[in-house]
Write a structure and sequence with these properties.
With 80 residues, the chain is mostly helical. It has a domain of 55 residues: Exonuclease VII, small subunit (Helix Hairpins). It has two helices and no strands. α1 packs antiparallel against α2. The chain is elongated and about 60 Å long.
């Protein structure tokens, strides 16, 4: 599986790669060094997924505020 840079991965891509890493590690056929590399990449992928979920949660919160007169706050884009 080709590794993309973290800032170019979508949530779905990061999750798919993470699932593939978990499958490979669960088979127990990786060397210790490869297992450690996979674990390190898995931590990185988990952080990508957590950030994407937190961002989505914030967007939903902004969109579903109960107060009709509340101003929406601009959501920071990935371009900054």
């Amino acid at each position: 599986m080709s590794r993309k840079k973290p800032d170019t991965l979508s949530f779905e891509q990061a999750l798919a790669e993470l699932e593939a890493l978990v499958d490979a590690m669960e088979k127990g056929e990786l060397s210790l060094e490869d297992s450690l590399k996979s674990f390190e990449r898995g931590v990185e992928l988990t952080r990508i997924c957590q950030k994407a979920l937190a961002d989505a949660e914030q967007k939903v919160e902004i969109l579903t505020r109960k107060s009709a007169d509340a101003e929406l706050e601009p959501f920071p884009s990935d371009d900054t």
